[in-house]
Amino acid sequence: MTVYTLFLYIGFVALVITVVRFFLQGYTRLLLSFLQNFVGTLFVFSGFVKAVDPIGTSIKMHEYFEAMKIEFFNPFSTAITVAMLVAELSLGIALLVGFKSRITTILLLLLNVFFLMLTGYTYISGFEPTNPFFIIAIVAFMFICIGAIFEHGYLRFWTLLIGFGTIVVALLLMKFSTLLLTKPFDPKGMKVTDCGCFGDFMKLKPWQTFYKDVILTFMALILAVRHRQIKPAISVLPRTVITYFTVIASFFFCLYNFMWNEPVIDFRPYAIGEDINANRVTKDPEKKDMIFTYKNKKTGAIRELNQNQLTALTEDDTCLARKDVIVHEGVPARIGNLNVFNEDGAEITDSLLHDPNYTLVVVAPLLAETNEKVFTEDIRPIALGCDKAGIKIYALTKDLDQAEAFRHKNQLAFPFYTTDDAAIKAMMRSNPGLMLIKNGVVINKWHYKKMPNFQQLNSAYFSQK
User: Fold this and answer.
1) Crossing angle for the helix pair 30-51 and 206-225, nearest 10 degrees?
2) 259: closest CA among 78, 426, 83, 423?
3) Which residues contact 422 (CB under 8 A, 6 or more apart)?
4) Residue 161: what pLDDT?
5) Within this chain, do residues 37 and 104 fall inside the same structural domain, yes or no?
6) Domain carrying residue 197
7) Tell me: the pLDDT tens digits for 267-287?
8) Number of compact structural domains in the chain
9) What residues pair up with 395 in beta bridges, in sequence order?
10) pTM score of the predicted model
11) Residue 113: which residues within 8 A CB-CB, separation 6 or more?
12) In principle, which of 112, 202, 382, 403 could form an S-S bond with 416, CB 3.0–4.6 Å?
């Protein structure tokens, strides 16, 4: 699915809701009603696909914080993520039912501006923005947000005019000077290559996300300015109960998906039923073309030619430069960073992923932060049972230098290995967690609060082989 297909689906749902409300309520402001339903539905969907895996969004927030040089927010990234997802889901529902339209639309606008600043920075960083760029951007969005809040028509008009006028000035400066942007766009210069707007459900390029957020911010601005014309979909008591229930339910739903369980819907390439080996294979290779820049000594003309056009060269042409241009982005492997090593640096990835028998993998990204009680009370008895039954058990961690001391302290007989930080975090959202694989296929996964015992594993899997 592409972002365009998703928008079509969301638009269809919004259209259906708009038509139903027209026949049931006689609400004739159809365009405003459609915007209300479109933005509300999109926020609910976007919030839900991230709420099933809040830790994934928290990891993405780490990337944003590091890119923007505000790493001091990293310890609070999970709390910030949960608050953001609760707000996204709750405001989407509040907009759909018409709960307190003024405060709902203003908060939606501010949340959109927050998203736009994140994704905008990601995209614009490919141009290397200067300090004046950030100053102008902040001034423009400040005036636009203030204009949406003002009830007085005269003040609203002038603040919005200043905000949008500032944007026009910025666009002209970007077009005709280097005051705001120092170089042409370079994808390699972008600080974050995937926005995380829809979690692992869909990956968007930064420019796709930026344009999406520009459109959504404009829609949210219209809703904020026209909030008085937004008609509630249901009466006061039901819409109040639904909105407050959404706040509470979404909060506990987010917590459930990392504190008490693995994500209830898993879009990751390590989900139950996924073939890790297949996911490590590139689906469609990237294709590049070599572009040569030549200058003609007689005419001074400069031409860029690909390899097939070099036959057109003459003895007067001199090569100035050569560059590689991507002509087809291709489809990369879903897993591109899984390489497992032992403490001596030897790779054991193939032996782990091509074993035709059941294999248990204990995943503990950070040993310093793991739940040691789970290792001693749950994992160690499982390991003893596996040893007697001839079932191999591995442990993966980022902290391999601490593994030996950890093993001795908790009397663990199985070996520890290490892999890429991103890969090990993607495998499990639990520290520790347990993953059962067979020939590289993920058979099952368990959060440490739902850890099975060996007897359950044996009766469900091992005795069936």
Assistant:
1) 130
2) 78
3) 337
4) 81
5) yes
6) 3-128+183-260
7) 999 999 999 999 998 877 777
8) 3
9) 362, 416
10) 0.83
11) 141, 144, 145, 217
12) 403
